[in-house]
Amino acid sequence: MFGIGTWELLIILVLALVILGPQKLPELARQVGKTVQKLRRTADEVRREIDIDGVRSELLGDPELKKLEQELDVRGEIRKAMGQLQDPPPLPGPGSGPGGSAPPAPVAGPGSDPPAGLPPGGGPAG
Fold this sequence. Notes:
Layout: H1 6-60, H2 63-71, H3 74-85
């Protein structure tokens, strides 16, 4: 303890008893005890705070946690669902549009020739 041996501590206590007297020494000992107790509590609190910060930094730096956050993007899923709940634009039906009536679109079935300008696979040329 502070590099003080048993004999040195005994000499300090005897000198304190002689200088302060028997009435003030117990009061001083109580004050020193309370101060040491407060210092220990403060040191324990500081250690706990440092440990909390260390755990927090470990969690924030964890790549598995970041991957899980991206997979479970709840806010993004809610935004996507809200966008799907919006009323879609009305589809053009018979009798709508500038000409009053739109001709039906040609449907190519299996074995039929592709429309002009498209390669035999049915996709755009390129």
